Amino acid sequence: MASDILGVLLAGGQSLRMGSADKFLLPYQGRPLLQHCLDRARPQVDELVISANGDASRLAAFKLEIIPDRWPDHPGPLAGIISVMSWAQKARKDSVWLASFATDTPYFPADLVTRLRARAERDGTALAIASSAGDSHYTFALWSMSLFPALQKQFEAGERALHRIARDLNASREIFPESAQEFFNINTLEDLSALSQ
Question: pTM value?
């Protein structure tokens, strides 16, 4: 674990396919999905925060800093990443990297951040994305804090898609072994039921 890595649990979405505003609070094996993700992410970073909108009191039990989007109407994970970077510019100036984690994927790799950082440093890139089975998992990434001005500029120009951001920044890809569960993300109640079996 490096002391210069801040982690963010991305919980700012609307969960439209799930029919629940707070998909990450749905119970899985007796605990909220968010708790599973928090427990996997915490050992990988020096500090963990939550990117979430709405009433912060509903997340008080997790005892983490809650950082809302700087823009209204749930504009997506890029907004959450930029908003946390903006907060860190003042509150966590020593942070060099931001590790992002989705909150609907409870079994992401325990060595995710270590491997992403090694990939970024080996390739000399400012962004490393997790990949497996031919798919890139853009919300599981390691972002250099130095990207903040460029990301903000792209967002304000109308960009919202992480895959285009990754392309434009020539992001590295760290390939993880194919697994049935590691990057399985829960979008519907059927997905949650399938994972529970």
Answer: 0.91
